[in-house]
What does this fold into?
Amino acid sequence: MYSKASAPEYQGALTSLSVNSSLVDVLAEGTEKLRAAELSGSQREVSRSALAVAEAHRRLGHVEEADRAWKESYRAARSVGDIGAMAWALWSGGTLARQRGALALARRLLALAADMGERGGDVVVRGYSLAGMAETGRIQGDYLAVGALHERLLAEARKRGEARHTVWALEGIAQMHRNTGSYDTALAMFEEAAGIAERADDRRGRAWALRGMADIVSVRDQDPERALALLTEAEVTCREMNLSSALAYNHKMRGNVLFRASRYEEARPVYEAALEEFRTMKEPRGEALARLGLVKTLARLGRDLAGTAADLDELSRHLDRIGLRHTRDMVDKARAELGVEGIGRR
It folds into this structure.
């Protein structure tokens, strides 16, 4: 039995906020409480309020503001020796680093957060930090390295009845199954995640699960209309909660669904919009995926082979720099798919 989803990153004077609170509202209230805490001189409250501000900025795609806020949270926590609050700030900073494509930094910060969480006796921040490390490895394609960690975290979350963490773990494992071709298993896990999220009133988690389901339905069942309907349902939540990153990934997946259905004229503006969204929030992984989709779409619409090959070469170099091996493999597959292997590659 799972309890109602909670948002442990909203602490102190902000505990009334829920996992479904609009990020614009979180930012406004967090900023107000942060100013009050600074005036009162309470460093513990500064740390807690700055954490919420950092998370709201991060999820809204405000990279520089999020970076300043998590560091303020950490400094305030350190000034009073609050190890648990320091762990939460490091978790936020590590998650932001992963979002920005600084994967080595993300691993370091998240490892420090997990260690501090354990030393401070905060099992939740420890679990969130380990989950962040697992997700960082997963998006790099290190499935063997992080698969067991994902499974252990899922077991721990199930045992505690922690819905939100269970949903995250299920979605991470499901994505690995999807990427290795185990579509039936992946769909079952995404569906379970969606069901748990719905019962626990975790709208964000459900939106991500619906996106995963749409992907499988499109690939395995070749049912674009059902996939698009799932994405439309998820998009409503993304817009209502101002989930900028989730919305951009939703749009990128909509482009994928249209591309797979050979609806290239429809896919092109969707990929272009997603690409602009990712660039605005400075999220290099999402940008790379949207660029890849757009390159493939333009090729299907008649782009010359040399131009397509040059675009894929540049994208490969970019992915090598940020260490996204799985996405890099997708570029190599695109070369074969588009018939540009050996053209312009260097």
